[in-house]
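User: Modeling request: complex.
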Amino acid sequence: MKWFLGHLDQVWQLMLNHAVLALIPLVVGLLLAIPLGWLAKRYRVLYSPLIAGTGLLYTIPSLALFILMPLVLGTGILDPINVVVALTIYTIALLVRTVADGLGSVPDEVVQAATAMGIGRGRRFWSVELPLAVPVIAAGLRVAAVSNVSIVSVAALLGIPQLGSLFTDGFARNFLDPIAVGILACMVLALAMDLAILWISRAATPWLRTRVAA
Amino acid sequence: MNLLWTWLTNPENWQGSSGIPVRIAEHLAYSAATLLLAALVGIPLGLWIGHTGRGRVAVVNLVNGVRSVPTLGLLFAAVLVVGPLLGGDIAFLLPSIFVLVLLAIPPILAGAYSGVEGIDPGARDAARGMGMSSMEILFRVEVPCALPLIFSGLRSAALQVVATATLAASVSLGGLGRFLIDGQAYRDYGQMAGGALLVAVLAVLVDLVFAGVQRLAVSPGLAPVRSARRVRTRAQLAANPT
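Assistant: Request completed. Predicted assembly structure:
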């Protein structure tokens, strides 16, 4: 506790770094997973290869993926870009399936009704199908957010500063306080992101709320 | 890329007590021991929860809660706290295995529990109607029906364990993670990347083995072709107004 109060600034700075490293891949991954998930849902033939392909990438352990990234990207081993790209890959792997299943869960009648009302394909996707898939996509996004926060801390072994640095520092100095603070800060960050996604998802689906109220 | 290739093709790296084959064997040994221990706890507990329906909420919360705990921090904390009590090599080995087991239990538990819970209630009722006892229902109906999901739980646990065992090298354990950590310490990128590639290949292979076993574990009565037909007939029945 004493250590924590003395190092508030440092912990806050590391937490901000951590949040940025976990958030960027989440947003980029979601933006890339939406078209991929749409493809998987629209063209049944692509469903299995897309899910299996991204699933294969998901099996690669994080530390190994961080280390292999420079070979693909031509970056330095200490470049945070490696972490961002690796986590984006994990996020896509988790979300492609969720987006495809979410879009698949939209009732056919609704899509047909929209078509009958003269809504074009593009607008139908953005204003009918995607909004109705939000609850399913948000559930997948919450899992991705929480696991991203945990995986980011592994990058401390490569010397990329974020909350995981508290683990390596504490371990090197045989000092438990920074490790405990780091674990708690990670869990708080994961919880905050989880709640934020839940809140955004609720705000984006007002029709679900009225049904609950009634 | 060249560094990686040079390291992988250097015969010296494939020999001796810190060669690649030994590290792979260590990695697999840690992972197998962990999975076995976690399965011994997770499967019976999951079956019990699924069979009795008690403690469901606790399982869901546990699985979600454990996911948010940073693995690396838990590993370091366990070694710092438990290590000094033991001494010797075991001071690193025991806490690491403990953390690995802790992380492997939730997916196994969730698989066993959801496997039993998802069984068609009709099958359970039929078994009871045939005069089966509670234990007979569990072992002759529920477990066979739940096998695919039990194995899917084991599969995700195995994935998690192989990945986390890599991190265990940072608390001076063996396994393939050694190459990643030592390569970093010696500024030897070839060794780091070579080790990383081996870990990635090992993880994919382990996953494929489990995927194969999972397919074999499906009871013939639950085979996809037949169940698809069953669903279709059920849908037809529902569609026909009587």
